[in-house]
Structures are given as C-alpha cells and as structure tokens.
Amino acid sequence: MNWEALGAISELLGATGVIASLIYVGMQVRQNTRSMRAATYDSLVRSNGEWLAPLIQDAALATSFEVAVSNWAEVEEDQRPRVMFLLTQLFRHWENAFFQQQQGTLAPSLWLTWQEIILSYFHQPGIQEWWQLRRTVYTTEFREFLEASSPLASGIRTTRQMKDDDSNEG
C-alpha cells in the first residue's frame, strides 16, 4: 500500500469521525431541549401551585379574588392590597409562561392550554379594571400580547360564574 492510499484512508476515517461526532452532538442537543422543556413545565406547575396555596387556605381571600375578577370596584377596601398583590403575582407567573413560550422552552401544545387560561381571565371585567392600574409593571411584549387579544368563545369560566350558573338553574 502506498502513502497516497494510506492518506485517503486516513481522510475517510477522519471524515467518518467528524460525522459521528456531529450526530452525537445533535442527539445531545435534542435531549437537552427535551430536558429543558420538562424542567420549564415542572417549574410552571410548581409556581402555579404556590400561587394557588393562599387561595386554598384562605376562603376570604379566594372570595375576594373571585369578586375582583368580576368587578374590581366591589373588592372590599381591606382586601384590595392583598388581591392587588395576588393578581400582580398571577400575571407575573403568566408573563413567565409567555416568556418561556417565546424562548421555545415551553412546548406549543402546553402553551395553548396556558394561553386559554390567561386570556379567559384577562378578558374578565374586573381584571380589565385592575389591568389599567398595573399594566406598566409588565414587559411591553406581554402587554401587547394581552391587549391585542380577543376574548375566547370557549373561555374558562371562573368558580364564581359556575356558582352563579348553578344558582340560576335551581
């Protein structure tokens, strides 16, 4: 075997090694993307649970929240600061979900479920009143997303709306 043949074989082996390395890196990137999306979703679910905990533990706060969703002006004066902080945190949580979706770390199918919840609440009359008081604390992109949206025909009903429906049926 001459030196040219050995050189060609070496180049072929080198090219094969580069291709194998690229395939391996591609597989690692794909696995990392899956792991990142799983971690993002887990973080959002945990954050949602942390946000809900005070409402589950405090019936008066839960009631004030439901009142605020329907009509901000009807929230009792002593409950307004708590509900203001609660809504601010809720929309910060949703802004995080929006950001994760924009970054590609929240799977599109999962974003659709978050989007339905976000827009269902955003278009409630009391939230619209509250939003005018606090809209500037959120990113321009998130504000534009919300403010350019339309109410969903199949929006999620609040627990107060479900309770009102039950009262009207009986």
List keywords for this structure.
single chain; 170 residues; mainly alpha; 0% strand
Question: Could you please describe the fold and organization of this structure?
Answer:
The protein is mostly helical and 170 residues long. The protein has one domain. It has 7 helices and no strands. Helix 1 crosses helix 2, helix 2 packs across helix 3 and helix 2 packs across helix 5. The N and C termini lie far apart (95 Å).
Topology of this structure?
Layout: H1 3-57, H2 59-70, H3 80-103, H4 108-122, H5 125-134, H6 140-147, H7 159-169
Low-confidence stretches: none
Envelope shape: elongated
Number of helices: 7
Radius of gyration, rounded?
A: 25 Å
State the helical fraction: over 70%
The percentage of residues in β strands lies in: under 5%
What is the number of independent domains?
1
The helix/strand order is: HHHHHHH
Q: Major beta sheet, specifics?
A: none
Give the overall average pLDDT: 85
How far is the first residue's CA from the last residue's CA?
Answer: 95 Å
- Quantity of strands, as a count: 0
Counting helices, strands and paired strands, the structural category is mainly alpha
